[in-house]
Amino acid sequence: MFDGLLMYLVGGAVIGILARFFKPGADPVGWIMTIVLGALGALAGGYIAGMLGVGNRILVWVIAIVAAIVLLFLWEAIRGKRPRAA
């Protein structure tokens, strides 16, 4: 179980870093949130790929990265609405 969780976090980190690389603009997201958003992107991308019947691993990774990019945009939109502390 620990091996699976560790690999999921490593995969999430890779997907999160790739999403931040491909997403335009400055990203004020820390490393922990990058891993979290990458892991959530991997989960969402895997789910979407499964629903579409995609079996190609590279295409599944592309879908996961796109899902993580969407999550980055959503995270910035949510964070941007909060008032900043002085």
UniProtKB/TrEMBL annotation:
Transmembrane helix found in the keyword field: yes
Transmembrane feature ranges: 6-22, 29-52, 58-78
Membrane-protein topology: Multi-pass membrane protein
Cell location: Cell membrane
Keywords tagged on the record: Cell membrane, Membrane, Transmembrane, Transmembrane helix
Family annotation (InterPro entries): Transgly_assoc (IPR007341)
Principal location: membrane
Record family assignment: Belongs to the UPF0410 family.
Full protein name: Transglycosylase
